[in-house]
Amino acid sequence: MTALKSGRITRRDPLQPRLLFDPMPGRIQPALALLIHKPPVGGSWGWEIKWDGYRLHVHIEANRVRILTRGGFDWTNRFPAIAEAARTFAPTSMILDGEAVVVDEEGRSDFSLLQKSLGASGRKIGNQPSPALLYAFDLLYLDGHDMRHVEYRTRRHLLEETLRGHEGAILLSEELDADPTHLLDHACRMGLEGIVGKRQDSFYRSGRTGDWIKLKCTQSDAFMVVGYEPSTASRAGFGALMLGALSDGELVYVGSVGTGFKERDAVQLRKTMDKIPWRHKQPPVPYSSKRKVVWVQPTLIAEIEYSAWTADEKLRHPSFKGLREFQDNADVCRLRGRRA
User: Fold this and answer.
1) Secondary structure (3-state) at 271
2) Which of 144, 159, 174, 259 could form a disulfide with 139 if both were Cys (CB 3.0 to 4.6 A apart)?
3) Interstrand relation of 94-101 and 133-142 (parallel, antiparallel or unpaired)
4) Can you give the CATH number for the domain in which 224 is found?
5) Neighbouring C-alpha atoms within 13 Å toward the C-beta of 106
């Protein structure tokens, strides 16, 4: 029998392209949309509906799926429908950027329905699986290639091709070819939260860079719960939540919210506040009113919808939408120089 011999090793042709593969990042800080109050003039933008839910990155590999929150926590078990849909893409490896939502009967994303589906209450992690869907709007990694240094228009094209033909709980967030002024008006008339614009020639940059922008129909932000007003008329035992925002790194009082609570949720919220270890007569924010308030350690973050700010920097017509969980790493509202 003739012995097997390896072939002669030759040098690589320098004209032949070298195929490089990028390892999948363990976690990517998300790109965030900058709030603006009127559509930009000029530039090339892609426009989508603004979804009202939880921002997620879905990491899909041959042997596993990970669903990470904006804060980097693994919530794979909390979104089984999204995880199951993600597994159908294997062995393709990818990272999808999107928003987990629960939609109402009209097909609109509803943050309170999402919270209820998760069994969420403040810092407590719910145990029940959520039927939430993922609206995917960006592709950050694909089959060994980091896509963050690829223009958005190309990432978008690849995302559409990747999702084409797949069914389940991962859907494409459709890009809408329309004038943003008319699009925003239509979104508001439909009861949606607003629209998001993305610069077509931009790379994927973490943080609020201005490459992504958002226009809202109604204003909504996250605020710290710093206390509550007791009430004997309410079964929950409180009449309103006291809210705080950040100004130059310090918490300041921005008003109270007493509407938007469902009775059952309000009772659970009071139980959650009663479990907070620190309650004191001294407020954690500058406060001069004589109203009776039970002050609590600022650990809970509430999503509040409101119409505007008053002249003395208080929320106008606030309404409670739900508690955000600390794993979501929600941005507490910053006053950005509104105060003197």
Assistant:
1) helix
2) 159
3) antiparallel
4) 2.40.50.140
5) 8
Cβ-count burial of 19 within 10 angstroms (0-12 exposed, 13-18 middle, 19+ buried)? exposed
Q: Tell me the residue range of the domain where 104 lies.
A: 34-216
* Amino acid sitting at position 99: E
The answer to whether the beta carbons of residues 199 and 211 sit under 8 Å apart is: yes
Task: Assess whether the previous peptide bond of 25 is cis (omega < 30° from 0).
Answer: no
What DSSP line would sit under 146-196, residue for residue? EGGGS-HHHHHHHHHHHHTT--SSEEE---B-S-HHHHHHHHHHTT--EEE
Which residue in this structure is represented by tokens 């999402």? Answer: 114
Phi, psi for 291 (deg, rounded to 5): -65, 150
* Strand pairing class (133-142; 170-172): parallel
Closest C-alpha to 327, from 25, 67, 74 = 74
Give the active site residues.
50
- Tens digit of each residue's pLDDT (9 = 90 or more) over 261-295: 888 888 888 888 888 877 667 888 999 888 889 89
**Number of domain units in the chain:** 2
3-state secondary structure of 255: strand
Q: Which of 181, 216, 251 is where one domain is finished?
A: 216
Contacts of 107 (CB under 8 A, 6+ apart): none
In terms of C-beta density within 10 A (0-12 exposed, 13-18 middle, 19 or more buried), how is residue 49 classed?
buried
Q: What CATH number does residue 57 fall under?
A: 3.30.470.30
Separation between Cα atoms, residue 103 and residue 73, nearest integer Å: 24
The one-letter amino acid at 162: T
Q: Is 191 found in the same domain as 242?
A: no
18 pLDDT above the threshold of 60? no
pTM: 0.75
Show the tokens assigned to 309.
């700010």
User: Same structural domain for residues 288 and 186?
Assistant: no
Cβ atoms < 10 Å from Cβ of 278: 10
Same domain, 193 and 227: no
The mean pLDDT of 114-137, rounded to a whole number, is: 75
